[in-house]
Amino acid sequence: VICGSVKVQIFLTSLDNDAELVVAANLFKYSQKNDVVNEYVLKLNGTLKLKGACFGIRNQHLILSYIRPVKGLDPEELEWIVASIAVIADEYDDFLIEKFNL
Questions:
Q1: φ, ψ (nearest 5 deg) of residue 34
Q2: Where does the pLDDT of residue 61 fall: very low under 50, low under 70, confident under 90, or very high at 90 and above?
């Protein structure tokens, strides 16, 4: 799923009963450590602004992800998760690049 400048990817950890849904978006290339950016995004993790999503680093990219057990997941919730990640990632992608001159 493409939203603005980010691409949202959807994964399942397995096909077993204990599978988890992972919805993630790469924000931008993040190959050089920046302590100020790290502190800023880590402080955002767990806040209501991210709606249960969290920032991390994967393959030298800053990512935003959401992980949830598949059990009990309904189509409306899946749609909400994907849309939330897309909108939040697109918003923070541009915001962080501008704020920290990345």
A1: -135, 105
A2: very high
